[in-house]
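User: Some background: our group keeps a shared notebook of sequences we're curious about, and every so often someone picks one and asks for a predicted structure to add to the entry. Today it's my turn. The entry only has the sequence so far, pasted here. Could you supply the structure so I can complete it?
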Amino acid sequence: MKKTAGIHHITAIVGHPQENVDFYAGVLGLRLVKKTVNFDDPGTYHLYFGDGGGKPGTIITFFPWANAYQGKIGAGQVGVTSYVVPTGALSFWEERLGKFNITFTKEARFGETYLLFEDPHGLQLELVEREQGELNHFEFGGITPAVAIKGFGGATLLSARPDQTAKTLEEVMGLEKVGEEGDLIRFRSSSDIGNIIDVKATPLGRGQMGVGTVHHIAWRAEDDQDHVEWQEHVRNHGFGVTEVKDRNYFNALYFREHGEILFEIATDPPGFAHDETPETMGENLMLPEQYETRREQLVESLIPIEVRPLD
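Assistant: Of course. Here's the predicted structure to add to the notebook entry:
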């Protein structure tokens, strides 16, 4: 059986790009590792935030549209994105969220304590302490490695058919069912981050794509050969799967599982430093080759953004 190591990235739709940058870099201390455009709609940004190295399992990506309509979180989406922080760091994050007037609540499940809050555009986020995962040595805005977000803890999936989503996680993606609590079924993959997936067992009303919703969740493939094997594997389980798409920083293929959540499988290589140096990642607008001739026009149309400390 094929088994994904875990989450590669999560992609969401948000509003004004500067508000997006201020929250994920300025408040949460993540690194803007790539500033590019939506390859299918180059009139808008595609922004990638992660740890200092932009490793798989740490990357959240955004399509920001200022003044776009608000979406509705519901079935067929990732409902909550979890971030993992070092053991003992939650008190720091309680103080930091309070400092920026971000309302949060605390919740206990599966023996862990979570801080739940929203980003400025309505995305549901949470922080959880865990020993697993390397420290993030990127420092910004007074956030040190001792408390910095290490990457994804996982995600909560909202499915139109939870039994089918659970079946896909186990039989197609190779995750292991490890428990049930309340209305949640928990699965785990082999990675030390991005490895815990909760599926809400009760179907919700259908979600509506828009600002404040997750567009898709991407799973890890080791390399291009593994990726091709995943394509065949998914097809052999009866899913319609796309051709391989070159996303410059990884190759991607997509399929919609039977609970209506859009799954992507993405390669770990080549990563985000192949067109910038590791030191300068995220500083410049990077365009795929097909859009370089339109650089001046695209720069004029995009809202200027700046990574800035908010303290």
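Suggested note for the entry: The two ends are 49 Å apart (CA to CA). The mean pLDDT is 97.
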